[in-house]
Amino acid sequence: MSKFSEVLTPDNAVLAMIDHQTGLLVSCADEHPLVVKNNIQGLCNMAKTLGLPSVVTASLADGPNGPIMPEITKILGDKVINREGEINAWHSSEFKSAIEATGRKKIIMAGIVTDVCLMFPALSAVEEGYDVYAVIDASATWNKTVQQASIHRLTQAGVKVTTWASVLAEIMSDWRSDKGMELGQVLADHTTSYNYVMNSYFARS
């Protein structure tokens, strides 16, 4: 089966959250910071609901980049791989080993900033045979021009550029699945429009 048609499942994917650090987030302007934060929380809560393995990493956490957003560690736990200096997280043996240890070849990946922290490890992982889903709306960068340039380069390399809600729907697959309603609630909690859908449903129940 082509990797372009094989879908995400709770058993074949790992979540990688790369450099979502407070010092980097404040400089991002391609989307409102509150929207980005909400999308990041939605993605993390999806992974927690499904019990997906997750790998969180930071670059120079004691320096200007700052620590990982507390919203992420609150959901996924306090384990963070603090890289010694590698800009490309894939060049960190600890990060790469953590991904390999899951035995999963599909990586749901998000990072700040998009054109460096997300793009470089995504390209490296694809080169080594991984199927990478770059969650563009749970990532952020300096402006829309940089975001668009990053999307072009990612897609040219075979990375699947996607959104967190699309990932959730793909991995849920069926509302009748064991986690269907829980995932629906995650979607409602982090998207205004679907919150109204769920409210309407429960009002009729």
Automatic annotation (TrEMBL):
Record's keyword terms, sorted: Hydrolase
- Entry's InterPro entries? Hydrolase_YcaC-like, Isochorismatase-like_dom, Isochorismatase-like_sf
Offer an example of a GO molecular function term for this protein: hydrolase activity
SUPFAM superfamilies attached to this UniProt entry? Isochorismatase-like hydrolases (SSF52499)
Q: Where is the Isochorismatase-like domain?
A: 15-165
Q: Does the keyword Transport apply?
A: no
Q: Name one Pfam family in it.
A: Isochorismatase
Q: What is this protein called?
A: Hydrolase, isochorismatase family
Species for this entry: Shewanella violacea (strain JCM 10179 / CIP 106290 / LMG 19151 / DSS12)
